[in-house]
Amino acid sequence: MVSEYNMKKIAAEHATKYVQAGMKIGLGTGSTAYYAILKIGEMVRDGLSIQAVATSEASEKLAVEQGIPLIPLREVDRLDLTIDGADELDDQLRLIKGGGGALLREKITAFHSERLVIVADDTKTVTQLGAFPLPVEIVPFAYEWTIQSLTQLGCTVQIRHKPDKGFYVTDNGNYIADCKFQQIPQPEELSSRIGSLPGVVEHGLFIGMADQAIIGCQDGTVRILHSGNSVAKNPFDS
Ligand SMILES: O=C(CO)[C@H](O)[C@H](O)COP(=O)(O)O
Hints:
By secondary structure, the chain is of the alpha/beta class. It has helices at 4-15, 33-45, 57-66, 103-111, 143-151, 187-195; strands spanning 24-27, 51-54, 81-84, 88-89, 95-96, 116-121, 134-138, 156-159, 175-180, 200-203, 205-206, 212-216, 222-226, 231-232. It has two domains: 4-125 and 207-232, 3-Layer(aba) Sandwich (Rossmann fold); 134-201, ACT domain (Alpha-Beta Plaits, 2-Layer Sandwich). A seven-stranded mixed sheet has the order 2-1-3-6-12-13-14, sandwiched between helices. The chain has a four-stranded antiparallel sheet with strand order 8-9-7-10. Strands 4-5-11 form a three-stranded antiparallel sheet, covered by helices on one side. Strand 13 (222-226) and strand 14 form a beta hairpin. It starts with a helix and ends in a 6-residue tail after the last strand.
């Protein structure tokens, strides 16, 4: 039995096998993506030539520390591969993301990537999304009204706070409303309803974006989920 952190590490390091010379890579955010960034840093120091874009200021700082060459967005047309974490995922690779507050940059980066590979430990896989509160990035202006609109969708909303009590502010200067639905039986419908609310910048439902998920399991192996529902049992299957 391996620890949750080792499950994350195993999954993240497996995903770095898809990184090839010359690629432009999106670097995700969070404690699982962290291990992918460390491994990519090691690969770069061993001579691999890649360029990267980070999905948060935290991941950018880590990438710089690791010696990973970062490219300005204006110089990138499309990314070859993004490796990122998730807070929940179902067997159709529908995701809840944003636990780390980086969902807006993560979604933009995923949208402009040829391939999005999700890395997660097995505790993140669910049969139905919703136990994890859905993070929604909202603008500070009239945020109380936006919270009211979100509440009308059937959830309880908590505005995210920093440990020292003030509001948590994203890298984009916005707030995060964590929306507890308990169950999200129709993520597609909820996605378009939340997306149409004024004051909402972006939400953490990622639907039809992930191509693959690498799941780190308790027995130290990985399980690979592909979009379209097929599951590769062989831990070394790509
Ligand atoms: O969406 C995210 C950050 O906005 C993260 O990918 C997500 O919260 C998972 O984080 P972790 O790997 O630490 O469990």
